[in-house]
Design brief:
The chain is α+β, with helices and mostly antiparallel strands. It has one domain. It is elongated.
Length: 73
């Protein structure tokens, strides 16, 4: 992992075949193939940017109560 703490898709290659994203608060539950993410987003894409995109329509993403926010962010 880079020293700034940002996880890139390339950091997952060879370590994971499938990345699972789950949030008990909003019900988000998905599996994503790392190989497909690499092809679609590129090796140097940030995981946090990708998560922001897939959770963009989550009703819990901007909840006022910090403890009630989407855990997939």
């Amino acid at each position: 992992m880079p020293c700034d703490g940002v996880i890139l898709i390339r950091d997952l290659i060879g370590k994971l075949d499938v990345l699972r994203v789950v949030c008990d608060k909003c019900g988000c539950d998905g599996r994503f193939q790392v190989q497909r993410l690499t092809k679609d987003r590129g090796r140097d894409s940030k995981i946090v940017d990708w998560l922001d995109q897939i959770t963009a329509d989550c009703p819990k993403k901007s909840a006022r109560n910090m403890s009630d926010r989407c855990g997939a962010q």
